[in-house]
Structure formats: structure tokens, C-alpha cells
Description:
Layout: E1 2-9, E2 12-19, H1 21-36, H2 51-82, E3 91-94, H3 98-105, E4 111-118, E5 132-138, H4 142-153, E6 159-161, E7 171-180, E8 183-196, E9 218-224, E10 238-251, H5 258-263, H6 269-303, H7 310-331, H8 342-370, H9 376-389, H10 394-403, H11 407-425, E11 429-435, H12 437-441
Parallel strand pairs: 5-11
Antiparallel strand pairs: 1-2, 2-4, 3-4, 6-10, 7-8, 7-10, 9-10
Helix pairs in contact: 1-2, 4-6, 7-8, 8-11, 9-11
Keywords: Cell cycle, Cell division, Chaperone, Cytoplasm, Isomerase, Rotamase
Region (Disordered): 436-499
Subcellular location: Cytoplasm
Amino acid sequence: xxxxxxxxxxxxxxxxxxxxxxxxxxxxxxxxxxxxxxxxxxxxxxxxxxxxxxxxxxxxxxxxxxxxxxxxxxxxxxxxxxxxxxxxxxxxxxxxxxxxxxxxxxxxxxxxxxxxxxxxxxxxxxxxxxxxxxxxxxxxxxxxxxxxxxxxxxxxxxxxxxxxxxxxxxxxxxxxxxxxxxxxxxxxxxxxxxxxxxxxxxxxxxxxxxxxxxxxxxxxxxxxxxxxxxxxxxxxxxxxxxxxxxxxxxxxxxxxxxxxxxxxxxxxxxxxxxxxxxxxxxxxxxxxxxxxxxxxxxxxxxxxxxxxxxxxxxxxxxxxxxxxxxxxxxxxxxxxxxxxxxxxxxxxxxxxxxxxxxxxxxxxxxxxxxxxxxxxxxxxxxxxxxxxxxxxxxxxxxxxxxxxxxxxxxxxxxxxxxxxxxxxxxxxxxxxxxxxxxxxxxxxxxxxxxxxxxxxxxxxxxxxxxxxxxxxxxxxxxxxxxxxxxxxxxxxxxxxxxx
Length: 499
């Protein structure tokens, strides 16, 4: 076998591999010799079939098997021998000429193929003890725990029917029928709707017109659906709702006690407070983690500048761009609406893709050198988390991970990345800083929900920052900034009355 490098340009490599015809014939003859005592052919006694006859009958199929084995096994071995890692699956090219292929299968011509790939650049790790991060910490007071419990307790709040007029905070039970241009529209009817005035569940202007109604009242409410309302047939339209009030009820006061805890499925008020405090700490901790991670990645980005494999960048850019196009389509906006152009957006998101790939390679190298590993138990927990997110689709998801090559990498990569960040936090200079919750939660335009640098997670459907990306928009590998979107619609168009 001859291995000849024909291209070494930047990270691009092209290798010509040649297996002489004599070597291929020798391998074929070895296979034929192995077959001689096993094959049975009419007219010949077992073990007495001439090799020449075996070659005539099986020669081409054996050579085809040898070609497939070489193409499968040799590229990884060649890369290992060269001390290189390919950024993506190497591209393999061989003759497509039928006559040439026939000669190769007849061992009358050398078997040649080429490997084309990009190498993962060698990364010389630098000391990280010069990295300094500020970890923002919020002290959680009793008032905040109480406030959060009261919000949660709204689901358990009881209401008592009243004879007077409905006021802000009262619950109105009613039947309604929505109409546009005098015609009822789909989803605009409910015979037993319950609405708490001030909950902002219905479209703007609806709830305010319920103030002052009494049980038994009939009323026509006039509203205008928002211009960006999800149901296009209703967006921007004036509508009326024929209302029949069935009951007005006032809200009972909420007291944080064991009785409330029991309604919420807990054994005591103390346990309720403990759980709520833990939830708040987890929420703040997640934001703190995101900001600390961003600081680390920003400084790593300054420390490491090198050429990135363009195929990886292309794949990352394509993933980002698909999400941008989806978000624009769902929001009905254009790049011009977001104060940019498609050309500028492409340029900015290309930089974002390059940053993600570069930082992903750096984190991978740091993790490998530090011996960071992802256990099977961790992968299983990640898989179960996926299953919980999509109830009813468990079977399809399991089949996807079983049958899709590389699918488990989607689970492994974010776990690996977070473990590398944990490793870095044990080595960098971390200073805790007490801040208010407002300071902690404040985010600049370029910040967003955290995503994996090494492997982008499935994009979340949510409102995000302006389409115009900035150079530091990927500081913590967040989802690519996308056009702002409104809250998702609720189940019924009238209830949507302010979703």
C-alpha cells in the first residue's frame, strides 16, 4: 500500500492511497484458498475444486468485498498513522469508470482512492490560572420566599360567590361567543369560562370591561386582536364577545400555613418554604452559572485564536441559519424589521459559528487532557430527561437514539462541556460578589439562554434578542439571537384574548 499526500493547505488534506494489483490479487488468492475446503460446487468433490475455477466463479465478488473492507478500515488507520484527527468523516473518491472498475476487480489494475478531509488543529493548552471570574450571589430573604409562595398559592386559592359587582381580582364565570364582522369564529365560544380579572389571560381590553358586571348580566364586549396575534385570520381584527355572566366570586385571603401546604401536596408550611427557597436558589444559581461560564469562555476566546475546520463551521452556521429562518417565518418579520440585512446577518452568524467551533475544540482538548469523562449513568439520566420532555413520544425517541449513528453525542456533548467548566472553576480565580436579584438577572442585548459550545442543543422556542448578532453573542454558547416573538396562544381564541 502506498500513501501519498497530494494536498496540505491550511487544515485541508488530500491523500492518495494505492493498492497494487499484485497485492490485491494476493489477498484474493488467500480468500480463495480459505474457501477451497468449504465451498461445494456441482461436479467437484469437496476440497477438490481448482483455484482457477473458484476464481472464475467468485473472484469478482471477493475483490468487491476486499475493496469495501479497505475503504472502511484503512482511512482511520491512515489518519492514526499520520497522527491526525479528521474534523468530519473523510470524503472518499474512487474511479466511477466501469471499465477501470472491472480491471480492478479482475486484479488487472491497481486499486486507487483518495481521502479528502480537514484536520483538527493541534491546540497547545495555556495556563488558566490567570483567568479571573466574578461569581454573583443573591441573598434570598424571607419576603422573597413569601412572595413566591403567594404566587404559587394562586392555583389553590378559593373563591366565594358574591352578590355585588365584579372588581379587580374577582373571578367571573361566564359564557361567551366571539364574533368578527358579526360572524362567530372558530375557538371563540365557551359556555363555562372562568376568568380572574387582572390575570391578563385575555386580549387587552377584555378583562377591564368585566369590572362592574353582576351574576345574570348580559353584555357585549368590544376588543381588537393584536396585529401580531398568532391566528392570522384574527390578527388586527375588531371583534365582539357576547357575554352572559353566570357567577361573580371574590378571592379568599391566602395564609401561609399547614393547610395551604396540604392543598399544595406537602406536609407542612415549613416544608413548603424549604422547597420554594430551594427553587429560588436553583433559579438564581442557574443564572449565576451562566454568567460565570460566559466569563470563562470570553477569556478562553481571547487566549486561543486559530484556524477552524470549515466543514464544522459550515455545519454550525447551517444549524444557526435554519433556526433564524424558522423564527423569522413564525414571527412574520424580515431582517429589515430587525434593523439589519440578510448579508450582514449571515456575516455575523458566520462569526458566531466560528466562535462556537473554536471554543468547542478548546473545551474538548482541555477535557481530554484533564481526563474528563461522561459515564453511562449520566447519559441514561440525560436520555430520561429527554423522554420526560416529550410525553407520549418515548418509543420514537428511544428508537431514534438506538438507530441514529452519533445521536448519543447530542446527549454527551453538553454533559462533557459542563464537566469541563466544573474542572476549570476548580483552577481559575473565582471571587464571590453579593448582588441584588435585579443586578443578577440583568442581561445585555447579546445575552440569552445558555447552549452547548461543543454541540448545539435543540433550539428553544422563545423570545430572543435582535437578529443582529454581535461578536460576543456566543460568549456562553447561547442560542443564536433571533427576532422577538410574542407569547404562544392559548387553547381557545377567546381565551387567547390575551395570550
